[in-house]
Amino acid sequence: MPEVLLPVEQPAAMGWMGMLRARLADEGSGEIVALYAVHAATIAAPLAIVPYASRVLGPEHWGVYSIFHSLALYSSMLMEYGFNLSATREVAKMRESRPERARLLADVFSAKLMLGGVLLLLLLAAAHYAPILKGRPDLMTGAALFALGQGASMVWYFQGTARVRSIAGLEIGGRVLAIGLTFFAVHRPADAWLLLAINGFALVLVAALSSAMAVADSGFVRPSLGGAMRTLKDGFSLFIFRGAVSLYTLANSFVLGMLAPPAAVGFFAGAERINKGLIGFLNPLIQAYYSRLSHAATGPKKEFLKLQRRSMYAVVGVGLVLGTFIFLAAPLLVTVVLGPGYAPAVRVLRILALLAPLSAISSTLGVHGLLPLGRDRMFNTVIILAGFLNLALAASLATRWQHEGMSIAVVSTECFVALAFLADMYRTRTQAGNESEAEAV
Fold first, then answer.
1. Which residues contact 80 (CB under 8 A, 6 or more apart)?
2. Which among 139, 232, 250, 374 could disulfide-bond with 73, CB atoms 3.0 to 4.6 Å apart, if both were Cys?
3. Percentage helix, strand, coil, to 5, in the chain?
């Protein structure tokens, strides 16, 4: 059974910042820096746009936009299909084999093409039958373009091959383009759909160019239906995970829109956007270590555990700092980013600040401790339960306390995930200890 280790004692003189610098001062630091550059651009675009858009649209129209934005993010998971985890893990194992990379790339391309068609059909049906989405073909069109661009992202390939630096400039350029086009085109509440369409266009453009770069790196192999079906089958468990985890990470504004007025959605979505942008600084660390741990899992267990311990110091340390900052700076962040009329978002943001340390713990125990070793089933079980728990809590709490209730539901769900992974770690360590004692006897 895999063992998830807790951090060991370190010399007090180093301090946690000294330990973090030491952990990053290795061969993977360049990839982490590149991932941070890409992520900085990813959060800079929405955080640069939000102060402008929230003021132009106002709380109510911002809430309506956020419902469709949440729908776009969640539906993009169908096309992404968990490849950011499953395909990253596979390509990390075949870095040295160009033909194998080419075959995997072709299989993922063909699978995503099929999933993109299904995605469009589902969005079309939703626009026709879902009352909350009816009568807004402009917003639905923007949401569809956004979902396709998000789902077509190629970061998984460059992350798995440790070449994120190759596309960092491209990713950053796409975000800058989106910012410029937004300020140029969005001037009134009726332009809300352009927020989605512009960002969707930038995402599609970046995905197309980075796909060409990936093919140039690996070589071209003719796509096949059999390869696509095999790839879909292999990634199904992580697709279930991505869909479940998205129920309490991406679909919250959409869920709240079915339970509360648009203004409440605007308060929650504004605070959630700020919180996600800041705790998203955990993602480059999580992604970089996940790729390296997936590669290390094919070698000696001692090296894997050593690298896993490093990830715990880095991710949990950053998570604690981020959570503290968000809680203390919430009034200033809401005023600067969202503007007047969004005062209720302050309490929402302070509740959501708890997600930073909780997400750090659950990521180091789950994404870093279970997935690289192939323990997808345990991982998925926890995440699926969490997704349904979030819906149940939202139905109860958001109906009564609207935006604040939704934030409590999200934090409670993440707490459940962290506790479940901790319980699994304790059970695994106890079982390993009992087996060692039995062998000694």
1. 150, 151, 153, 242
2. 250
3. 80, 0, 20
Contact 63, 266 (CB under 8 A): yes
- Is the entire prediction scored with pTM above 0.90? no
- Choose the weakest-confidence range: 223-232, 268-277, 347-356: 223-232
d(CA 139, CA 199): 13
Amino acid at 283: N
CA–CA separation, 88 vs 83, rounded Å? 7
Phi, psi of 48 (to 5 degrees): -80, -30
Name the helix (H) or strand (E) containing 346: helix 345-352
Tell me the residue type at 345. Answer: A
C-alpha to C-alpha distance for 349 and 330, rounded to whole angstroms: 6
Model pLDDT, residue 323 = 95
pLDDT digits 0-9 by tens, 205-263: 999 999 999 999 888 888 888 888 888 888 887 787 777 777 777 788 888 988 989 89
Higher per-residue pLDDT: 35 or 408: 408
What are 102's two structure tokens? 């080419």
Please, are residues 342 and 401 in contact by the beta-carbon 8 Å criterion? no
CA 372 to chain centre: 17
**Rg of the chain over all Cα atoms, to the nearest angstrom:** 22
Residue 187's alpha-carbon distances to 195, 201, 230, in angstroms, are: 11, 19, 47
Nearest to 45 by CA among 166, 203, 152: 203
H or E stretch including 151?
helix 137-151
Spatial distance between the Cα atoms of 6 and 4, rounded to a whole number of angstroms: 7
Q: What are phi and psi of 177, to 5 degrees?
A: -60, -45
* DSSP 8-class letter at 26: S
Q: Which residue has the tokens 């690298």?
A: 307
Q: For Cα atoms 91, 92, 98, give the angle at the middle one, nearest 5 degrees.
A: 55
* End-to-end C-alpha distance for the chain, whole angstroms: 20
Residue 354 to residue 357: CA distance in whole angstroms: 6
Burial class (CB in 10 A: 0-12, 13-18, 19+), 52: middle
Nearest to 415 by CA among 363, 377, 362: 362
- In angstroms, the Cα distances linking 100 to 90, 186, 289, 366 are 10, 45, 23, 28
Cβ(107)–Cβ(230) below 8 Å: yes
**Exposed e or buried b for every residue in 263-287, given b needs 16+ CB within 10 A?**
bbbbbbbbbbbbbbbbbbbbbbbbb
The number of residues making up the chain comes to 441
